[in-house]
Design goal:
The protein is α/β, with parallel strands linked by helices and 255 residues long. It is built from 13 helices and 10 strands. It has helices at 30-43, 66-71, 73-76, 82-85, 105-112, 128-131, 143-146, 149-158, 164-169, 182-194, 198-214, 216-230, 234-244, and strands at 3-9, 12-18, 49-54, 59-61, 94-98, 101-103, 115-119, 123-125, 162-163, 175-177. Strands 1-2-3-5-7-10 form a 6-stranded mixed sheet, with helices on both faces. Strand 2, helix 1 (30-43) and strand 3 form a beta-alpha-beta unit. The longest helix has 17 residues, at 198-214.
């Protein structure tokens, strides 16, 4: 049955896109469920990092079910690309564990995530030009910033897939894993992030996105202001104490 399954490992929420008979395409209520589960993870105080992967080892996701686009069902949902853009507006880091083919809306989602881990059998596709549709969801504006601009342009103009090893060389992928190991490698990153101050992690994410959207000077002003705020909070006291006492810090966030 097509679904978005969820489980929690410590402070990490893991969402799995499950629709293997259609290469984990989003159909029915899957996109709405996906957005709801991302929102729930964002609002859950016990969750510090979200990891998203696909079921099996063939596909992360092939994006929207084209049958629903053709029938108009996708447009009628009024969701648009909101579920796939959601990581950009979340305070918590979202990691894509890309275990196979990652096309169309799934590429939008991967682009919207903060970090990307891909297995060596993964491939990235922007099929819009081949389907007579403009690539959306930040592909035109942000994809050329996440990888070599000329390679991003080639990906969109040709609609030919980009292999994972090349995506790694362009800087789009943080880590390249063996087939079947994308989730495990993503969890290594997630655990490292979850052990740090959640307040600082959220502030770093927000500051980086601010710099990307508004430029270097607003990001510098953000640093100056937020750094002074955070150094007065409990996590800063705990971090310094733990360092001096040669122990692992226990961060709780908040003041």
């Amino acid at each position: 049955m097509p679904e978005i399954s969820t489980r929690t490992e410590g402070a990490i929420r893991i969402l799995t896109i499950s629709n293997e008979r259609k290469r984990n395409a989003f159909e029915g209520t899957m996109a709405a469920d996906f957005l709801r589960l991302l929102n729930e993870a964002e609002s859950d105080g016990a969750v510090r990092v979200i990891v998203v992967t696909g079921a099996g080892d063939i596909a992360f996701s092939s994006g929207h079910d084209l049958n629903e686009i053709a029938s108009g069902a996708h447009a009628e949902s009024n969701l648009g690309e909101e579920p796939f853009l959601r990581p950009r507006s979340m305070r918590k880091p979202v990691i894509a564990a890309i275990n196979g083919h990652c096309y169309a809306a799934a590429l939008i989602f991967a682009l919207s995530c903060d970090l990307r881990v891909a297995s060596k059998n993964a491939a990235f596709g922007s099929p819009g030009a081949r389907l007579g549709m403009l690539p959306e969801g930040g592909q035109i504006g942000r994809l050329p910033r996440q990888m070599a601009p000329a390679r991003a342009l080639e990906l969109m103009l040709t609609a030919s897939p980009l292999p994972a090893d090349e995506a790694y060389r362009t800087g789009f992928i943080n880590r390249l894993a063996e087939k079947g190991e994308a989730l495990n490698e993503a969890l290594v990153l997630a655990r490292a992030i979850a052990s740090n101050s959640p307040s600082v992690v959220a502030a770093i994410k927000a500051g980086v996105i601010l710099g990307e959207v508004e430029g270097v000077e607003p990001a510098a002003a953000y640093e100056a202001t937020v750094a002074r705020q955070l150094e007065k909070e409990a996590d800063a006291r705990e971090g310094v104490s733990a360092f001096l006492e040669k122990r692992a810090p226990v961060f709780r966030g908040g003041k």
